[in-house]
Write a structure and sequence with these properties.
The protein has nine helices and twelve strands. The protein has 305 residues and is of the alpha/beta class.
Length: 305
């Protein structure tokens, strides 16, 4: 019989792209991961992985095995959910992965509410610059508070359900010498120095594409994912920032915010979970708390599906 732990190791290597990255995720040594993969290869009697530059890729046999492994682990998740549904109570633990820009206005109120309503529940919160949707099938996290920019392709992996929370526009942030709240044309930023996230991030890609659609390539001498640093550059008059509305404390002194008049840059915030046929009360409680916190914010909330 196949060892389910070895199957999990194979799935993790595929998701991470390398044995070293998988070892770090599994809290194992690279040698231990290699041993598990070697044992699985002996069980199957065929190569499952092949070198692919600095990463590894599945062979055809490996692809078939991972497809079956996905169904196996999906069945395990269904079994856990079915038992949880019979119990009908919120469990003791859950893990949430969230973007830094959502912590103050959504995550913190949601966790405060959960602590009050379900004191037996301990939620571990992983703050990460990119939404960790790939962690959901691996069971590393239970819920991801993710984002998708409306003018970028939807890259949500298969087997992931998303619950929309709110539409969150990016605002133009400058020093406080401006007055009024009139919208600003994105084209006006062609002459500005911008502080932006790296182009490898969702937000960085969205800003770059929107500027190009507006007819210019932005000047970006300052590159950082740290929103506090972006606000500092803007407050000092060194650069103009484009920051999601939920990430800006409205009481922040020394800055001025304006909506974008043309070529709006807007992200959809959502709660993502693995698709299952049975409702898990614990995951439902976390998603509900996130949605309630979003509804209480000063943003445009979305109806439930």
């Amino acid at each position: 019989m196949l060892d389910i732990r070895r199957l999990h190791t194979l799935r993790t290597v595929v998701a991470r792209g390398s044995i070293a990255a998988a070892a770090q995720s599994l809290d194992l040594t690279a040698g231990a991961v290699s041993q598990q993969l070697a044992a699985l290869r002996r069980e199957m009697g065929v190569d499952l992985l092949r070198p692919d530059g600095r990463t590894v890729a599945l062979t055809e046999a490996g692809r078939v095995l991972v497809e079956h492994a996905d169904r196996i682990f999906g069945a395990v998740q269904e079994a856990e959910n079915a038992v949880a549904a019979v119990k009908g109570t919120v469990g003791p633990t859950a893990t949430l992965a969230a973007l830094p820009s959502t912590i103050a206005r959504i995550v913190t109120p949601a966790l405060t509410s959960l602590a009050s309503q379900h004191p037996q529940l301990t939620v571990t919160c992983l703050v990460t610059d990119q939404a960790q949707l790939r962690e959901l099938p691996l069971g590393t996290v239970d819920v991801v508070l993710g984002q998708r920019y409306h003018h970028l392709p939807d890259a949500t992996p298969r087997g992931i359900d998303t619950c929309p929370l709110l539409d969150d526009p990016l605002l133009i942030v400058t020093s406080a010498d401006r007055t009024g709240e009139q919208p600003v044309s994105l084209r006006e930023l062609a002459t500005h120095r911008l502080v932006v996230p790296p182009p490898t991030t969702d937000c960085g890609q969205a800003i770059l594409l929107a500027c190009r659609q507006a007819g210019f390539t932005p000047s970006t001498p300052y590159v950082t994912t740290d929103i506090a640093a972006q606000l500092t550059f803007a407050r000092a008059g060194l650069a103009t920032a484009l920051i999601p509305r939920t990430a800006i404390d409205p009481t922040t002194a020394g800055i001025h915010t304006s909506p974008i008049e043309d070529h709006p840059i807007q992200r959809l915030l959502f709660a993502a979970t693995c698709h299952t046929n049975t409702v898990n009360p614990t995951i439902t409680a976390v998603v509900t708390a996130l949605r309630t916190a979003a509804q209480h914010g000063h943003t445009t909330c979305l109806p439930e599906d």
